[in-house]
Structure prediction request, 259 residues.
Amino acid sequence: MKRFILTIAFVLLCITSAFSHELTIKAKSETFKAGEPFNATVQSSHKFIVPEEVEILSRVKAGIIEDGKLIESKLKADEENLCIDFTVKPKDLSQSVILAAIKDGETWCVTNEGGKTGSRSELEAKGLKVISANKYDKYAKAILNTSHEDKNYSRVLGHPLEIIPITNPADAKVGEFFHVKILLNGQNYNGPVWATYDGFVTEYESTYAYYTEAENGEAYIKITAPGYWGIRAYQTGLPGVKGDYDHLNLRAFLLFNVK
Prediction:
């Protein structure tokens, strides 16, 4: 019995680790021209902005935000560089450019035969014992081409878990705090918040430069270096869908440049 419990615990640990891939966005250029296309990537990895796997294209949407709505781009898998490529054409560069990516997560189950994709009911119909069933939805938002006068950076997109900058990224300075608002299904999020920047650590997984906790939906991150920053939050254990998954888990990333 003890061996069975230890085996299940090990499987749960492995499955949880597999789900720690984070969804992020990075533009391939920092120069933008109105009406002209520029390229960006959707990345999935355990290490910040170090791509490690190509997400399933049918489960990902990405593109530019115009008038508060996502204008979807055609996605292309880049197996060599382990990312998804997409192209956008900003119409108006008098305001910040917002890119967004959404992953509709699969249902993953821990079973008596290990980790499996598929709903609880589907796997149980195959004779498997389902120990847990979880769905992981992911949201990423990159704010680019910011200016000191622009207010577009604070636009709320309505993602179930969303990090909204209160500090204008154009005003972010090394040594100062970056203020964000975090909403969970439209309500204040209270929970863990991580932040890091490109190049902080490339050797180790799930390693961040800064940690804090949001209270009443607000958090403050101290900017410690220039570069491409990411702020991350997640919520686990939300109600599931009977017969499909027991719990819904949400992950969100906000990305921006600090000069």
